[in-house]
Inverse folding.
């Protein structure tokens, strides 16, 4: 396992962990989490976002995002990056079974900033799928839509 010094390595290590899940369970992702505890948060977040926005791995999307969510839940990486920007990046491809992502938004930004970001994103043109996923995140976080 390489020490991740860029987001692509983190994304690829998550995919490697997924590829060998049937042989070793979640051992490799747990090992990656240990290594990532020594990595800059901005690299971790970008690597994880790349997993959530990747539309080319439909056969493993759930486990890909589950492992990315495990990293979010374990490490709780921090960012000051614009939440609406991040939300727009992941909304289309986010698997609604992965609750770690919306809860990470809440933990990182606080519930008031999350409410504002959801409201701003909701007021922009969204596909039916994106709107449904935004509503699911709101429901998970017990945020009532203002639109």
């Amino acid at each position: 396992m390489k020490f991740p010094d860029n987001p692509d390595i983190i994304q690829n290590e998550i995919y490697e962990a997924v590829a060998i899940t049937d042989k070793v369970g979640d051992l490799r992702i747990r090992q990656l989490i240990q290594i990532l505890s020594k990595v800059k948060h901005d690299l971790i977040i970008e690597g994880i976002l790349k997993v959530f926005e990747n539309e080319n791995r439909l056969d493993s999307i759930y486990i890909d995002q589950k492992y990315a969510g495990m990293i979010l839940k374990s490490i709780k990486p921090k960012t000051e990056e614009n939440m609406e920007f991040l939300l727009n990046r992941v909304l289309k491809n986010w698997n609604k079974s992965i609750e770690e992502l919306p809860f990470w938004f809440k933990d990182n930004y606080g519930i008031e900033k999350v409410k504002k970001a959801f409201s701003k994103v909701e007021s922009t043109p969204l596909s039916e799928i994106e709107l449904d996923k935004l509503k699911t995140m709101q429901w998970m976080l017990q945020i009532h839509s203002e639109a």
The chain has a mean pLDDT of 95. Residues 22 and 28 are 11 Å apart (CA to CA). Residues 7-140 form one domain.
